[in-house]
Amino acid sequence: MLRVLLCAATLLACATGAASAGTLEDVQQREKLSCGVNAGLIGFASLDSRNEWTGFDVDLCRALAAAVLGDPTAVNFVETTNATRFTLLLSGELDVLVRNTTWSFSTDVGLKLDFAGINYYDGQRFMVPKTMGVSSATELSGKRICMQPDTKTAMNLDEYFARNNITYERVEVESLAQAQTLYLEGACEVFTADASSLAAIRATFKAPGDHLLLGDVISKEPLGPVVRQGDDDWADVVRWVLNALITAEELGVTSVNIDEMRESTGNPEIARLLGTEGRMGELLGLDAEWAVRAIRAGGNYGEIFARNIGETTPIGLSRGLNLQWTNGGLLYSPPFR
């Protein structure tokens, strides 16, 4: 009956097959979280040698499942592409999309989606062979650049070259995988994408050191988990699980010391985060230990970053803008109070 009333009030949502509310209840009844991830971007979401999903985005899915279901393994990972990710989310086949997806006006307002926060501050850059001998994107005039037409990457590329009064030769591709193949074959001289994607792709090359990521950042690409509009309760759950991981790092709560912190902290915000004070779990429709389980699943934000994509991994990303605000970065969670 509730679904019928919601359909009458929100015809567009029902026409797309999306539930207007109740995702939390659906996930709990199903006892499984349906999480949309990249079809294979090492460090962020990919299958390992044991055929198990691993990565930065994967760990957020697992933290969410731990918070909601009490089991970080209770996740159905759904591979998505640029072409399918929003269709799958809007149709209701996904509960949440945790994939390199940029929060922009068109994705937020135009597609009627809600971003539950930012888990990675990114920007579009260029990768070139070191033998090309260039050090700046302004030296790429006349070069062949692989790009997917009708994407924000193509838009950023056109706008950047127009601003700098330089031209390039467009080599159109259907996917990042095709762009990678053509780049390695020399059919295009330059590969452009979000910096995180370029770093992940470069890590798969036989000789990663032969390729240079130019320092120029030509766009803002705030990436974060996405849910359907119209289900504020579920958006709150996803948002505050992410915030819990970020806040845990800020306050020094880790997967190693969490039990000690829970028993002996004198910090009221840590106590609220870990459920020994207040009623935050109840307000989310969860129990008091939801954030404890989320943090235990894979660690706080810093632990997840370091393990999957940090400087000691093949991806080799520095924290940069993704440092905590207390250390000069942009990573900032609203307070737990």
UniProtKB/TrEMBL annotation:
One of its GO terms (biological process) is amino acid transport. PROSITE patterns: SBP_BACTERIAL_3. It comes from the Bacteria. Keywords: Signal, Transport. Residues 32-261 form the Solute-binding protein family 3/N-terminal domain. Residues 1-21 form the signal peptide. InterPro entries: Bact_solute-bind_prot3, SBP_3_CS, Solute-binding_3/MltF_N. Belongs to the bacterial solute-binding protein 3 family. PANTHER family: AMINO ACID ABC TRANSPORTER PERMEASE, AMINO-ACID ABC TRANSPORTER-BINDING PROTEIN YHDW-RELATED. This is Putative amino-acid ABC transporter-binding protein YhdW.
